[in-house]
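WARN retry 2 of 3 for item q-0093 after timeout on previous attempt; input resubmitted unchanged.
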Amino acid sequence: MSNILEVKNIEKYYGSHQSLTKAIDDISFNVQKGEFVCLMGASGSGKTTLLNCISTIDRVTSGHILVDGLDVTKLKGNDLNKFRREELGFIFQDFNLLDTLTAYENIALALSIQNKSFKEIDEKVKKVAQELDIKDVLNKYPYQMSGGEKQRVTSSRAIITDPKLILADEPTGALDSKSSKMLLEKFNYLNKLGSTILMVSHDAFTASYAKRVIFIKDGKIFKEIHKGNDSRKIFFDKIIDVVTLLGGDLNDAL
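OK item q-0093 returned
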């Protein structure tokens, strides 16, 4: 399989010359097309900064990030906006839905910006709503939906443009356990359909749905493990073992 994401020797500093903080310290890794990868680490480990750099929300201090061969660290202006709009799908912990739009309109917005026809938009919205089991909420506004429904609407909006890479930042952080499990099962379903997902999570249960987990500590890659043919339960236990090596209990280290 080809690499959809290549992270090459990236570093990220914050602060001034008098007080520099190194958030990312020479990190390199690849994600293949169709993979489902989770980044894990303690608060302040650099995992969210890393995701922000990959998503182009933040800029690296040095190094390169390639998405499908395109060096996104060099993009600016309209080229950068076009890349974000067409090549990436974003799923945030706090949903980021527009309160004045229905679920249908929130999902359709991404395609409207691309000037797609009404027929194509309607067909795609209904298809993704079927895939993520939200047909019953398409005409509802965000305040009328549960947290799980909102997150599935957000996920639908993220994938409807067929992005090359879906970036999920703590997607289950605001959900109860039932809604979290339902969403993660949908992620697995999308992954089986060919979606490439890179997710940040502090939660071992959430991470156990991924196919590979990369652990970040002090801005560096500490360890990575692959699910392979293991059951999710066995993979979960392996994740917990690494968390123990990281030197903290679940509440502090995840």
